[in-house]
Every structure is written in C-alpha cells, then in structure tokens.
Amino acid sequence: MSAEAFDPAAKERELRAAADSWDVSDVVPAHDGDVPVVDVGPYFASGDDADLAVAADVLRTALETVGFHQLVGHGITPVQRAAIFEQTERFHALDEDVRRRIEMDRPGWPVGGVGYLPPGERKLPRRAQGNANEAFLMKSDIDIAPDDNQWLTEDVLPGFRAQVETYADLMEHLALRLLPVYAAALDLPAEHFTPGFASPFWRLRLTHYPPAEPRRPGDPFGIAPHVDTTFITLLLPGGPGLTIYSHRRDRWITVPVIDGAYVVNAGELLRQWSNDRVLSTRHFAHNPDPNSRYSIPFFFNATSDYRMECLPSCHSPDNPPKYPPFSYRESQAAVQGE
Fold first, then answer.
1. What is the pLDDT of residue 271?
2. Nearest CA among 245, 281, 249, 242 for reference residue 263
3. What percent of the residues of the chain are helix, what percent strand, and what percent coil, each to the nearest 5?
4. Which of 48, 106, 107, 209 has the fewest CB within 10 Å, making it most exposed?
5. Strand, helix or coil at 332?
6. Distance between CA 120 and CA 129 in Å, rounded?
C-alpha cells in the first residue's frame, strides 16, 4: 500500500481476501522456543536500563520473527486473574434473553462495539462466516467513559461492573508499563511512545467458546483466521485453543498455555507504525475441549486521534516509509467498522 494514502475500506478488503486464502488444514504443536517468553519482572522491579535491555532483546526477536510471545513477570496476580474469569463465567451463565438486554449495536445505544456480542456474529473481526463464540465487550477512548458502555443492572449481576472495570484498569496500567520495553526493542528512547498513549484506546473482551464438537471442514471457527488491528493484544487464555502461523516453520502451530502467562501479539497498527519491521501474525481460535472455554483479550492502541509517523528507527534512505502518517481512528478503527 502506497505511503500517499490510507484507504480503510481497501485495507479491510485486503485483510479479508488474505484470510480467505489461508490454508489452515495443517496444524501441529509448537516446539520449544517457537513462542518466546519475555520476562519483564526484573525490569518492573528495578527500573534499571540493564534489565530493560534484557527484556527488550527477547521482545525484539519475538516482534521481528514470530509476532507473538508469552509474557511473564507482569504483576497481575493469580487472585486478579481468577476474579475476571469468575465474572466472565457469571455473565455467560445468564439466560440469553438477559444478556441480549445489552446487545451490541442495538438501536438507541449511542456507542457501538460495546455490550453483548451473540454467537454467530460476523464482526470483530468482520468475516463472511459467523464466529462460534459469544462475548461481553467494553472499551475506552478519548470520548468514551465507563458510563458510555452497556452494563446490566446491579440487581441482575451484582459486582460485575466493578470487577470488570478494576481488571480493565489493571490491564491499561500494565500495557503502559510495557511501552518502554517496546521502545527499546525497536531501538528507540524508552519514553518514545509516551506522547502517543496519553489517552489510549482499548477494548476488553470477555469471550465464551461453547463446548467443542468434532470440527468438520466448513464449520465456523471460534474466531476466524485474522490479524489484529491493534498496537498490541494481551490475551489471558483459559486453556488451549489459540493457533498461530509460524513464519519460521511455515506452518500453523498451537500455542501452549503457560500457567500465569499472557499471550501477547502485535497488530496492524504496530506493523505499519514500524514500516513492516514488526510482524502482525495471522491466528485463529477454537475450543478443543468438551467443556466451555473462556478467553479474555485486551486490545490496546494509541490515543485514537494521535497521528503516527513512521518510527525513526524503522526507515532510512534505502527503506523509506511505506505508509502515510495515520491515526487509529482514521485507519484501523475504520477497518473495524467503528
């Protein structure tokens, strides 16, 4: 795509055409090292440049060769993780007619992309075939506060909103703490990304995958093959089910679940900001378990109207910028249909 313009409609067509062309029939387990482990614990504890450099070195390899990594040392406690899974299960245990009271994009609600997303919907990501999952979504933006999201009343689901907002705050804080690691990994000063995330746009998704049935060709995916439109996505997995494309092995691999780790990937926003230095890796999800599976991704982006120019460490006279300056709102948000 030329650096002269960014056409979000063309971008969506490009992403959908690419996804439709992917052969996902050959899936194998990951080998040790296929998904690097980035430990930010020492850096978070010390704040030292030496510890930052160690974490950034591993992250750099992950960004440039895999697109995914496992994040440990992040500081989100087992109690905090268990609490958000409990709220996810509580919400999805409600009768469907109750969940549909806050159905996403319902007439009369002014904010799109929040609330209950029923099974079979063809959005987030938008695809021709419906996804075999359901979700509760909330988001934050410059002009979107917690009250602008859709919530069930306290008498229906007591404590749910408070717990979800608490977890969202934890994740925003974590994502902001990671920015210096991403800057160092891309050979930039540690504070380089700070101005672009003064009021980050993010979306939290509490996803339920129904119990698995034997999958046949043509059946819907839990989440159809796609690439994320984010800066980064931080996924709290509730069990196996995520499959990614390994560029190094040239095949699809299942991502192992490491106790306490987040699975983190870069998206189209960071790929384009980095002039394609960073991989935005295709992936999909399903539920291989006869029981319900829950999965909680946090989609993190720059301030939605912040215009991103090609990172200074990612272009040169021999490698000029491929994309124009763009904001999330006029690029990836439009691709998502927001």
1. 97
2. 242
3. 30, 20, 45
4. 107
5. helix
6. 8
Task: List, for residues 3-41, the tens digit of each pLDDT value.
Answer: 556 666 666 666 666 666 777 878 999 999 999 999 999
Residues 86-122 pLDDT 10s: 999 999 999 999 999 999 999 999 999 999 999 877 6
Nearest C-alpha neighbor of 104 from the set 147, 143, 141, 136: 136
Integer Rg of the chain from CA: 19
Q: 211-246 pLDDT, tens per residue?
A: 876 566 666 788 888 899 999 999 999 999 999 999
DSSP for residue 312: G
Q: 68-72 and 115-117: which strand pairing?
A: unpaired
Q: From start to end of 181-250, where are the E strands? A: 200-209, 223-226, 232-237, 242-246
Name the residue with tokens 């268990």: 82
- pTM of the predicted model as reported, rounded to 2 decimal places: 0.93
CB 130 within 8 A of CB 117: no
Q: Cα(113)–Cα(103) distance, rounded to whole angstroms?
A: 10
Hey, what are 98's tokens? Answer: 């109750």
**Token pair 């992403």 is at which residue?**
15
SS3 label, residue 119: coil
